[in-house]
């Protein structure tokens, strides 16, 4: 059995009042209170206060307090959701603008190919195939943004991820468009 200090005794006083001490701990606290007049006086104050609290009459909350608290919580939650939706909307809009800009930049060299009617169908198939891929990546990015809006810690990382995804997508589109001529057409046309 170790010698109990006053700080430890003060912590155990509350546990004793709640009946949460083991018998060996009860004995240690009693021993300390017999040896320490300061803690014994404090223990008597704890007991007096505990007696007052246990015998105090219960007070009912004012009528309508529960409804008022629940309404305020609902309003606070609604404001949080509205703020999150605004953040999601701004992030999705920004990502969409970035992606459209990247696609437009990458496809600006395709216009002369599209003016050649015989090559229109293969070019359209090629563009549609890759735009579906772009849409899938954009959908993933939107999912990440939505999860980030719910998680405050990740909210700062979501725009960085969106910019990174847009940059990678723009570079990928640029490489694909420059390396692959329209089917059956002259290379570099």
Features:
single chain; 189 residues; mainly alpha; 2 domains
Describe the protein in words.
This protein has helices at residues 6-17, 23-35, 37-55, 65-107, 111-114, 120-150, 157-179. The protein has seven helices and no strands. By secondary structure, it is mainly α. It is elongated and about 100 Å long. 77% of the residues lie in helices and 0% in strands. Helix 4 (65-107) runs antiparallel to helix 6. The protein folds into two domains: 6-55, no CATH class; 65-179, no CATH class. The mean pLDDT is 79. The chain starts with 5 loop residues before the first helix and ends in a 10-residue tail after the last helix.
Element layout with pairings:
Layout: H1 6-17, H2 23-35, H3 37-55, H4 65-107, H5 111-114, H6 120-150, H7 157-179
Low-pLDDT residue intervals, each spanning 5 or more residues:
none
What is the CA-atom radius of gyration, in angstroms? 35 Å
Strand-and-helix sequence, N→C?
A: HHHHHHH
Mean pLDDT: 79
- What percentage of the residues does DSSP assign to strands (E)? under 5%
What count of helical segments does DSSP give? 7
Class from helix and strand fractions: mainly alpha
């Amino acid at each position: 059995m170790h010698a109990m200090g006053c700080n430890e005794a003060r912590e155990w006083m509350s546990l004793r009042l709640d009946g949460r001490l083991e018998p060996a701990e009860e004995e240690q606290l009693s021993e300390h209170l017999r040896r320490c007049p300061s803690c014994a006086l404090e223990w008597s104050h704890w007991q007096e206060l505990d007696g007052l609290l246990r015998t105090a009459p219960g007070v009912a909350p004012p009528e309508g307090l529960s409804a008022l608290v629940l309404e305020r919580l609902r309003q606070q939650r609604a404001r949080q959701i509205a703020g999150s939706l605004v953040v999601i909307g701004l992030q999705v809009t920004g990502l969409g603008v970035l992606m459209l800009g990247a696609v437009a930049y990458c496809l600006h060299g395709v216009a002369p190919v599209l003016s050649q009617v015989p090559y229109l169908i293969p070019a359209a198939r090629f563009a549609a195939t890759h735009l579906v891929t772009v849409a899938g990546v954009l959908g993933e990015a939107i999912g990440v943004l939505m999860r980030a809006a719910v998680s405050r810690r990740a909210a700062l990382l979501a725009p960085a991820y969106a910019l990174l995804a847009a940059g990678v997508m723009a570079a990928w589109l640029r490489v694909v468009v420059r390396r692959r001529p329209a089917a059956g057409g002259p290379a570099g046309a």
